[in-house]
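Tokens help. Our protein:
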Amino acid sequence: MVRRRTRRNLRKEGFVFPTPLLAVLLLAAMVALSYLWLSARCEILAKSIRQREARLARLREERRVEEFRWWSMSSPDRIVHALRRRGIRMSWPRESQVFYVDLAGSGVGCGPDVLAWRGRRAAMND
């Protein structure tokens, strides 16, 4: 008779962690880490947006100040003052020297075919 050998090394001793529970815990850890990464990314983007909005507000304020300065410089009194300060002797044109152009082409006989458009200006063609 052959004696049977016990397989002690194949016996499972100690605590065995269930595989499905391990899979669920790993999935939950991955979701938690993904959430933390997305949250950090959103915070970075929010900070960048706040900085850019502050810069936009500063630039709008600067533009408003510059528009006011330009508007005040282009008033007739300021123009005369600037001309005098620079020593330029000029006078305003007489009524007979002023020529008005109707850009719609209906007032002075200048149709759209006579005007050459350059940006926001119109120049007369001969």
Notes: Residues 18-91 form one domain. Residues 13 and 84 are 105 Å apart (CA to CA). The longest strand covers residues 115-118.
